[in-house]
């Protein structure tokens, strides 16, 4: 049990540092350098547990692949249709409240109450726009 929590700590640390929203494969490539005995199934299990306790976010991309995010700042995502990178767009608290209010208004139209929003914008990033 102890061994597992140590691995989870390392996985979480790695996700907090990275800003490239890695897939499990990308995490595996990186983590096996630190932990040569780690298996990809262990990473799958740990990221899904980290998601369940809300410590990281899971993002489903256009291609259907899940990516993981340990950035704790309040932010939404932008996915580039060309290079498929995911960018963070930081949200100030004021903006975040405004957006949530608008979304609640929308939810009200079906008499629902929402508690979570995952906003994903897509288009062309700055670099791809110039090409
Ligand atoms: Zn791009
Ligand atoms: Zn992010």
- The CATH class name of the largest domain reads Mainly Alpha
Following the backbone from N to C, one meets helices and strands in this order, namely: HHHEEEEHEH
Give the CA-based shape.
globular
Mean pLDDT: 92
pLDDT < 50 stretches: none
Spatial arrangement of strands, main beta sheet: 4-3-5
Q: In total, how many domains does the architecture comprise?
A: 2
Structural class: alpha+beta
Q: What small-molecule ligands were found?
A: zinc ion
Count of helical regions: 5
What's the story with the biggest beta sheet? 3 strands, mixed
Give the second-level CATH assignment, the architecture of the largest domain.
Orthogonal Bundle
Separation, N- and C-terminal Cα atoms: 50 Å
Oligomer: single chain
Question: Mind telling me the C-alpha Rg?
Answer: 17 Å
Number of strands: 5
CATH superfamily of the largest domain: Winged helix-like DNA-binding domain superfamily/Winged helix DNA-binding domain
What descriptive keywords fit this protein?
single chain, 131 residues, alpha+beta, Arc Repressor Mutant, subunit A, Dna Ligase, domain 1, 3-stranded mixed sheet, two-stranded antiparallel ribbon, 5 strands, binds zinc ion
Short description:
This protein has 131 residues and is of the alpha+beta class. The protein has two domains: 1-71, Orthogonal Bundle (Arc Repressor Mutant, subunit A); 73-131, Ferric-uptake regulator, C-terminal dimerisarion domain (Dna Ligase, domain 1, 2-Layer Sandwich), CATH 3.30.1490.190.
């Amino acid at each position: 049990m102890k061994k597992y929590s140590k691995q989870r700590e390392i996985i979480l640390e790695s996700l907090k540092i990275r800003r490239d929203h890695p897939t499990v494969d990308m995490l595996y490539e990186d983590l096996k350098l630190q932990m040569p005995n780690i298996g990809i199934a262990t990473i799958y299990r740990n990221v899904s547990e980290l998601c369940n306790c809300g410590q990281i976010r899971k993002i489903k991309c256009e291609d259907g692949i899940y990516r993981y995010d340990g950035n704790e700042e309040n932010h939404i995502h932008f996915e580039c249709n060309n290079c498929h990178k995911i960018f963070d767009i930081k949200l100030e608290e004021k903006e975040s409240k405004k957006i949530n209010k608008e979304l609640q208004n929308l939810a009200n139209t079906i008499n629902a109450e929402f508690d979570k929003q995952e906003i994903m914008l897509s288009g062309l990033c700055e670099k791809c726009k110039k090409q």
